[in-house]
Amino acid sequence: MRFLKSEEERAAHARAEAERLERDLSPRRRFEYRVLRIGPKARAEPQLNELGALGWQLVQVLETEGHLAFYLERELPGGERPEPEPEPEEPEPEP
Known about the structure:
Structural class: alpha+beta
Helix content: 25-40%
Shape: elongated
Order of helices and strands: HEHEE
Strand order of the largest sheet: 1-3-2
């Protein structure tokens, strides 16, 4: 096992760290996120289609506390900050 790094390895590591820091301070891509919670008997398709038309992409679905939680994301153009968007109306539960 080797513990000491060569000058080249240390320089490459320092460059990689500098690039990572620059990317973290000024990311080229920014995203905003949204969680849509739907009751167990409600249909999610209308709301998901509405959000999809607005550029949202489904990332994950989890069942939590008897509801489905749909996690969505969309990329912000040009690194803008996210603006709050009105929540879509929840459908009436089916009998």
